[in-house]
């Protein structure tokens, strides 16, 4: 893929991490595809949501930033399957949990968007 694609996905991930840290559904809607599939794959807490249901949950949570939680995140891998399909593996810590996210991105018009967010988490061990 082009350097512009790598840059665009990196910027999308910056908005993803910031949107989650701020619990900002407006920011997150800019990077999620309208047909988002949200899947929690943690054993005993499996959950399947659409975009609107997920955004309602985001709006109902206290932002980690407001609680003073530090941002801790990392992009582990970005892989492009084609000029319209990409995969991002990332990890982050928030709300007392360590998350591992597998994100599938598609080109939506001229923009990259997250069409599937599949993740698992474990309680943070401090």
Please explain how this structure is put together.
By secondary structure, this protein is of the alpha+beta class. It has a single domain, classed as Nuclear Transport Factor 2, Chain: A (Roll). It contains three helices and six strands, in the order H-H-E-E-H-E-E-E-E. It has helices at 3-22, 25-29, 51-59, and strands at residues 32-40, 47-49, 72-80, 85-94, 97-108, 111-123. The protein has a six-stranded mixed beta sheet.
Strand order in the largest sheet? 2-1-6-5-4-3
Into which percent range does the helicity of residues fall? 25-40%
Low-confidence stretches: none
CA radius of gyration: 14 Å
What is the general shape? Answer: globular
CATH class: Alpha Beta
Distance between the termini: 39 Å
Overview in brief:
The protein contains three helices and six strands; from the N terminus they run H-H-E-E-H-E-E-E-E.
Features:
126 residues, Nuclear Transport Factor 2, Chain: A, 3 helices, alpha+beta, 6-stranded mixed beta sheet, single chain
Secondary-structure blueprint:
Layout: H1 3-22, H2 25-29, E1 32-40, E2 47-49, H3 51-59, E3 72-80, E4 85-94, E5 97-108, E6 111-123
Parallel strand pairs: 1-6
Antiparallel strand pairs: 1-2, 3-4, 4-5, 5-6
